[in-house]
Amino acid sequence: MNIGIDKIGFYTPDQYVDMEKLAEKRGVEPAKYTIGIGQERMAVAPLHEDAVSMAANAALSILDDDDREKIDFVLFGSESGVDHSKSGAVWVHHLTDIQENARSIELKQACYGATAGLKMAMGHVALNPDSKALVLGSDIAKYGLNTPGEPTQGAGAVAMVISSNPRLMALDNDSAAMTKDISDFWRPLYSDYAFVDGKFSNESYLSFLKEVWEKYKEKTDRELNDFEAICFHLPYTKMAKKALLSLTENAPEEDAERLMGHYQNSITYNKQVGNVYTGSLYLSMLSLLEQSEELPEGSRIGLFSYGSGAVGEFFSGVIQPGYKAYLNKDTHESLLNSRQELSLDEYEELLEKSLPKDGSDIETNSEKMNKGKAYLTAIQDNIRKYEVK
């Protein structure tokens, strides 16, 4: 029985910052942002959009009545959780009107959370072939003004329906994973912003990739020539190029050229959004599927997931016949192309705003700019209130 991704949807706030203008404001050569890290635009979330509302909007864009009836497991991967106790998945379950006899949980391990959810969903469907699972990766990457991490911020969510006989990609149970206790990126409970050792984090990412790739080859007897393309977790899009160069350093030229040829299509969406943490690998995969010419039937796609702290995993999936018919390319391109550009003054004012942490009530300005259906309307009596238009 094939198990994998039957549907995939994406959502990002409808406002962004131009990276060239941000570079000029920071006194940096624009090419450092647009070429050096590979970003063109950076999504910025208003107060009425958080990890929950973005995940719900991504899910609402793909779910139909059959999905709502058959989904009995909702898995929410995020490192931007809004409650220490209540799962973001519970809110999404409600906002998307999924039938009530379902499990709903939140998973956390930096940018690896959605992959953990995906693997759990596969196991669930294997035991319950008539069921479906909803896997979400939703985050706001926020480092603060004038920080080294500022140009790698972003916001967005990816939602995937996992089922038997998937129409997009069948996922193999061929993973190679690894965990090591390191401090390359972390955010203590008392901090609104993450702490990161950028150089060490890049080195750790590439080290994990090398080790899990070698283990994967040992387990599967596969080599680079078995893959049409490889997608990566993207804290910034230039990271994928570094990763590919690392993998193909001693590879045959035809393999290196084929894999690098797919690189640009796999980063198209991420360049316009920025880092979405748990969803970034799957946004890259979506970009590859929607921006490439139709990939040959049976093409194998490699997937490398990395979450600082750290957990890494390499696995793969096989493209299904006629998959293009089940994508939403026009919707996603329209979402990205219709956003409003923020002035740098508007961006700086917004980035320094935050919801109250002292228990105060607040109503958000949720009608100002919101093309999604779900949004945070208020916090009242310490309870978050969400609505769907």
Automatic annotation (TrEMBL):
<dbReference type="InterPro" id="IPR013528">
    <property type="entry name" value="HMG_CoA_synth_N"/>
</dbReference>
<dbReference type="GO" id="GO:0004421">
    <property type="term" value="F:hydroxymethylglutaryl-CoA synthase activity"/>
</dbReference>
<feature type="binding site">
    <location>
        <position position="143"/>
    </location>
    <ligand>
        <name>(3S)-3-hydroxy-3-methylglutaryl-CoA</name>
    </ligand>
</feature>
<dbReference type="GO" id="GO:0006084">
    <property type="term" value="P:acetyl-CoA metabolic process"/>
</dbReference>
<feature type="domain" description="Hydroxymethylglutaryl-coenzyme A synthase C-terminal">
    <location>
        <begin position="263"/>
        <end position="387"/>
    </location>
</feature>
<dbReference type="Pfam" id="PF01154">
    <property type="entry name" value="HMG_CoA_synt_N"/>
</dbReference>
<feature type="active site" description="Acyl-thioester intermediate">
    <location>
        <position position="111"/>
    </location>
</feature>
<keyword id="KW-0808">Transferase</keyword>
<dbReference type="InterPro" id="IPR016039">
    <property type="entry name" value="Thiolase-like"/>
</dbReference>
<feature type="domain" description="Hydroxymethylglutaryl-coenzyme A synthase C-terminal">
    <location>
        <begin position="176"/>
        <end position="250"/>
    </location>
</feature>
<feature type="active site" description="Proton donor/acceptor">
    <location>
        <position position="233"/>
    </location>
</feature>
<protein>
    <submittedName>
        <fullName>Hydroxymethylglutaryl-CoA synthase</fullName>
    </submittedName>
</protein>
<comment type="similarity">
    <text>Belongs to the thiolase-like superfamily. HMG-CoA synthase family.</text>
</comment>
<dbReference type="InterPro" id="IPR011554">
    <property type="entry name" value="HMG_CoA_synthase_prok"/>
</dbReference>
<feature type="binding site">
    <location>
        <position position="275"/>
    </location>
    <ligand>
        <name>(3S)-3-hydroxy-3-methylglutaryl-CoA</name>
    </ligand>
</feature>
<feature type="domain" description="Hydroxymethylglutaryl-coenzyme A synthase N-terminal">
    <location>
        <begin position="2"/>
        <end position="165"/>
    </location>
</feature>
<feature type="binding site">
    <location>
        <position position="242"/>
    </location>
    <ligand>
        <name>(3S)-3-hydroxy-3-methylglutaryl-CoA</name>
    </ligand>
</feature>
<feature type="active site" description="Proton donor/acceptor">
    <location>
        <position position="79"/>
    </location>
</feature>
<dbReference type="Pfam" id="PF08540">
    <property type="entry name" value="HMG_CoA_synt_C"/>
</dbReference>
<dbReference type="InterPro" id="IPR013746">
    <property type="entry name" value="HMG_CoA_synt_C_dom"/>
</dbReference>
